[in-house]
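ok trying again, last paste got cut off:
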Amino acid sequence: MKNKKKNLKEMIALGSKTAKGGFSNEQDVIDRFNDWKKDKVAQEWLAEMNYKIDDIEFVKASKVRGQYKADIQVRITIVIKLKSQEDLQNLQVKLVSNPQGFNQIDKRKVDKYVEFWNIPQDITKILKLFTGELAPTNSNSRDPRRMFLDEMSESDQNKLINFIKENKILIVSDLLKGRGEFSADWTLVILKLNGESRWVLKSINHVMNVFGAGDIRITREGSLKIGKIGMQRKGGDGGRESAKMLQFKINPVELFEK
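nice, full thing came through this time. structure:
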């Protein structure tokens, strides 16, 4: 465990840049972008997004309202050979204080995922048994409210894994990037650790490659992993119906790579 923590600290140190000043929320990121002419960190972000600072004429960042993958939309005007070209870049921002922690990227009722991914009835039943929307068929379940995946038949486990494999690209894209006008183009992770802030900014394609890479498997806890994306029953909420949602999580610190 000590070696793992040490390697994580080394990974963060090598894969990130330091940002002076605090980050309390997304508004701090917006303010930095809007002060881009003076703010060195914002200039570094723009450079990571492949812009030449000398080419930029105007930057306007604003909060994206509603439930979208992008948290911030940055409007950038670039002057190229006396012609203006306007770009819109959508960023999702992850503020992290625990390098070992996990961040929710999506949660919905099973039926909403059925619509998104055209999930067949047999897989839908498996997922609803997992979340507790359907009562357990196994009287020996570890939780009387639902079934863990490792408590289901080997046939059902394989059905679920094979469905995820066949639809992995769509599923990973929906979970991390989203769809439509406010789908994410970039992910900015800001880690507040030991009194300083470190950041890493990656394109969404890079993010999908990092978190989508790896096999699909049932975990020892009876949940599911899609590469580095965890799927679990939401739980909590005082036992209300919202506890029966499917929830997907990642550890954003994985983006701090060497």
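cool. The chain is about 30% helix and 30% strand. The longest helix spans residues 2-15.
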